[in-house]
Amino acid sequence: MKRRKIWGIMAPLLVLAVSLMLSVGLTYFLDRTWFIVELALFLPAILSAAALLLYRRRGIRLTIESVAEGLEQSKREALQNSLLPVLACAEDGEILWYNEKFKSQVLGGRDVYGDSVAVVTGGIGAEKFKGQESVEISLGNRSFTAYISSVLSGETVILVLYFIENTKYKNIEKEFTLSRPGVVLFYIDNLEEILKNARESERAQITGKVENLLEDWTSKANGVFRRYGSDRYMLIAEKRDIEEMIAQKFDILVRVRSIQTGSNINVTLSIGVGQGSTLRESEQYARQALDMALGRGGDQAAVKTENGFDFYGGLTQGIQRRSKVRTRVVASTLRELIDNSDRVLVMGHRYSDLDSLGSAAALVSCIRSLDKQAFVVANRSQTLTPELIQRYIEAGFGELFVEPEEALSLISDKALLIITDTHNPGFLESEEIWRAAKSVVVIDHHRKMVDHIDNAVVFHNEPYASSTSEMVAEIIQYLEGATISKLDAEALMAGIMLDTRNFVIRAGVRTFEAAAFLRRMGADTVKVKKLLAGNLQTYKEKADILARAQVYGNFAVAVADSENGGNLRVAAAQAADELLYIQGVDASFVIFPVDKTVNISARSLGRVNVQVLMEQLGGGGHFNMAGAQLADTTPNQAKRLLLSVIRKYTQDTSQR
User: Fold this and answer.
1) Which of 161, 187, 392, 526 is the most exposed place for a label (fewest CB within 10 A)?
2) Looking at beta carbons, which pairs linking 190-196 to residues 24 or more positions away fall under 8 Å?
3) Strand 597-604, strand 625-631: pairing
């Protein structure tokens, strides 16, 4: 059946008719003779067009009726006499017919012949009907479920939709969903430190200000707000209220951060949000979300979702806690795991740097001093610090290092795997070794990522630590009977100096305490400095990258055009550090291609959270140091993506 959408010209015809009528009326005042002639031509034309449209519309109706006549009796009655609103359309979505109930109950008496079916399905086109038995439709404040069937007449397929209104039940469902309870947990990150330094008169005042802000912020919610610890609060609220908090991007974080003590310390808050099928499940999700927020440094909100976590805030650095109780507990547990294992493998991330490889090598030497077999898993062809491995070889300890293929054969049921300087399976030197290990320990200082290793017996994650080398240096001091050599101390010192940029960035009290311990163990700072030195080729590549840098506001971005393997990785990292010394630059980014991916090395002086920026590009890292890898893209495309993320970050932070 050939269809012609002739009623689609109704609107243009009406405009033309009105225009002609005005033109004829104007002629009346200019020339009566011409007015009579135009009127004589105008009226027959308009009447003929109207008659033609009526004829065509009647023809369409007759066509549909003829199609119905060719159907079985039951199908014909379904089209003509159905008690439900029924609509028939062509495969391309053109509305051909509908019954009176559809016109009165769905359309409100208007006609939509020839229009697209999308006008009565809330924008859903006929192409979405393929393979579907029904479709959910929203029209204004009304809801329908349309059940779909097809009728074949000759070579023509006609789609028949039966509309059933379920507005009442959809509203009940919506209300049920919005009224489901969720749990919001609040934790004051640095209350212990604040109260320690505050005067007695300030203590109650500070906690009182925090509570007042929280009570005021949660008072709009239809829920229950309670304090259940000196620094912990809980809100049980409906989903609609939690969605409103999310829409406000948890602006309570900014309000609490405005509270400052006499020691010029700002109060920070961490929030975990969980919404499960039961109240107990919601509370469990909220705890997981709070742990994730704290693992990322605090001063942020984490919302547990079906696909992982959503984060809000995170604009300040992690709160450094000076208590070493947890380190002693970790060291005690680690010693027990080492004693119960037959061998220990220590592995870092791919393209290992001085922090990853240095902490691993020192830890292996320490474990060997406890009369346990231990090895460092390292890919020598990809490491960024071959000089450190060469130092160990020259000292007669080359057997400490094994390739990933060899290490895989060393894995047994009683083997212990210690992962350093990363907690993301995708970044490991060998993901196969991790999957084969029965017992896993993670030691890392990067902010906790969503895709973290979740089967670790011990997950020692300190986002406020300067480096993994600092953490390992602390652990070694509590491993009874363990010793390290001068070379091990220099390896750890090199890792600390690399990640702190010679004790400039993220160097806290515990960083200098760890450095003092390593100095006592014989670390020679001159030899350490030589480990950090690069070759002439790396220096040239760094200079070339710096020459290509451009400044966008407070951000410096450089794109390298070389593909010279390992040297470029080191040069890019060093260039990102150097760009921070440009006046007015708070964060720097170096984009460079390696193999078939485009890498981004990001650095910050502390005012910009580069981890948040890199996470939006699929990467991660630390507040001041992060990175990302982009596949199937070019450096210039990566730059455009990065600038887009920077603009969004700038807009979000300017609104706070």
Assistant:
1) 526
2) 190/265, 190/267, 190/268, 190/298, 190/319, 191/230, 191/231, 191/267, 192/231, 192/321, 193/265, 193/319, 193/321, 193/322, 194/261, 194/263, 194/265, 194/267
3) antiparallel
Q: How many domains does the chain have?
A: 5
Q: CB of 299 within 8 A of CB of 269?
A: yes
DSSP state of 457: S
The structure tokens 């229950």 sit at 224
In sequence order, which residues have a C-beta less than 8 Å from that of residue 159 and are 6 or more positions away? 88, 89, 90, 91, 117, 126, 129, 148, 149, 150, 151
CB distance 206 to 231 below 8 Å: no
Rounded Cα distance between 392 and 20, Å, is: 96
* Exposure string over 388-404, b if 16+ CB within 10 A, otherwise e: bbebbeeeebeebbbeb
Least confident of 225-229, 274-278, 412-416, 558-562: 558-562
Domain ranges, residue 113: 73-170
Residue 318 lies inside a defined structural domain of this protein: no
CB 190 within 8 Å of CB 319: yes
**Four-point Cα dihedral 532, 536, 540, 543, nearest 10:** 40
CB–CB of 70/159 below 8 Å? no
Q: For residue 84, how many C-alpha atoms fall within 13 Å in the half-sphere facing its CB?
A: 17
DSSP line for 75-133: HHHHHHS-SS-EEEEETT-BEEEE-HHHHHHTSTT---TTSBGGGGTTT--GGGGTT-S
Dihedral sign computed on CA atoms, order 467, 469, 470, 472 = positive
pLDDT, one tens digit per residue, over 223-265 is: 999 999 888 999 999 999 999 999 988 999 989 988 877 667 7
8 A C-beta contact, residue 269 and residue 290: no
Question: β-pairing, 439-444 with 181-188?
Answer: unpaired
Alpha-carbon distance 271 to 311, whole Å? 10
570 touches 534 (CB < 8 A): yes
Name the residue among 253, 566, 641, 247 with its Cα closest to residue 382.
566
Give 44-70 as a 3 state SS string. Answer: HHHHHHHHHHHHHHHHHHHHHHHHHHC
Domain boundary residue, one of 47, 69, 91? 69
Partners of 267 in beta bridges: none
| Helices and strands: H and E segment counts in the chain | 23, 23
Q: How far is CA 412 from CA 36, 343, 500, in A?
A: 105, 9, 37
56 pLDDT band, cuts 50/70/90, is low
Least confident of 12-16, 351-355, 417-421: 12-16
Alpha-carbon 555 to chain mean position: 21
List Cα–Cα distances, 174 to 122, 155, 161, 624, in angstroms. Answer: 18, 43, 25, 43
Query: 281 with 225, same domain?
Result: yes
**Residue 576 is part of a domain; what is its CATH number?**
3.10.310.30
The pLDDT > 90 percentage for the chain reads 44
pTM (whole model) above 0.70: no
Beta strands 625-631 and 620-621: pairing type? antiparallel
Provide the CATH number for the domain around residue 289: 3.30.70.270
Query: 559 vs 575, 601, 639, 645, CA distance in Å?
Result: 11, 11, 8, 16
Tokens of 282: 């919601």
Residue 540's alpha-carbon distances to 140, 519, 534, 558, 573, in angstroms, are 65, 33, 10, 15, 13
Say whether both 141 and 202 belong to one domain: no
